[in-house]
């Protein structure tokens, strides 16, 4: 006979793990992190605020690539830009993103080759 507590948990999960807008936003965030260029941008911005020009230099990429990737990161509220004269300097929207990236890096290191 099944454990009644286990059946209760299964029933609870059935009713609470439905697709929601919040869950879709979580998936969209992971998709945004699913690109090496975007992760490199996040890692750079974790150190300091940078302009597009500075990011192109640091990452050795062209301006259109960096601008496009920044746009995608902004859509997910992972980075934000602040105008400073003629330039916009980008920074992480909050420190949660580095917690996520740090945890994933720790997992990869622990379960590496």
UniProtKB/TrEMBL annotation:
Give the CDD domains listed for this entry.
HTH_ARSR (cd00090)
Q: Name one GO molecular function term.
A: DNA binding
- What domain of life is recorded for the organism? Bacteria
Residue ranges of every copy of the HTH arsR-type domain listed in the record: 18-112
| Protein keywords | DNA-binding, Transcription, Transcription regulation
- Is Isomerase among the key words of this record? no
- Gene3D superfamilies annotated for this entry? Winged helix-like DNA-binding domain superfamily/Winged helix DNA-binding domain
PROSITE patterns, sorted: HTH_ARSR_2
NCBIfam families tied to this protein: HTH_metalloreg (NF033788)
This protein's name: HTH arsR-type domain-containing protein
Provenance organism: Secundilactobacillus odoratitofui DSM 19909 = JCM 15043
């Amino acid at each position: 006979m099944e454990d009644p507590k286990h059946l209760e948990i299964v029933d609870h999960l059935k009713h609470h793990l439905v697709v929601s807008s919040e869950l879709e936003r979580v998936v969209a965030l992971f998709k945004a992190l699913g690109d090496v260029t975007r992760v490199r941008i996040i890692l750079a911005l974790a150190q300091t605020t940078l302009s597009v020009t500075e990011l192109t230099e640091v990452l050795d990429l062209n301006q259109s690539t960096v601008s496009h990737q920044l746009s995608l990161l902004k859509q997910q509220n992972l980075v934000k830009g602040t105008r400073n004269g003629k330039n916009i300097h980008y920074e992480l929207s909050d420190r949660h993103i580095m917690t996520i990236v740090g945890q994933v890096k720790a997992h990869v290191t622990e379960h590496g080759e």
